[in-house]
Fold this sequence. Notes:
Radius of gyration: 14 Å
Amino acid sequence: MTTGVANIVGLCGSVLFIIAFSYANRAKQMNKVLFNGLNLIGAFLLLASLWVNFNLPAFALEVCWALIAFTGLISALRDRGGQA
């Protein structure tokens, strides 16, 4: 992956974070699967861009962000399954 492509991928990840944050602040009833899914995809995109343009503090943040989003997504999917 070139630096230019890595920057575009990272920007897409950042956009997903912004969309998720905006959604969380504007939704009357939040869909946790959507919220955590957007955050997880955003974290993976930023981690992919950091593979090319490595920055240790940003990498550590994105790994934590991805883990939190992943556990939140699993929890939301379990909760959704119990409601059926």
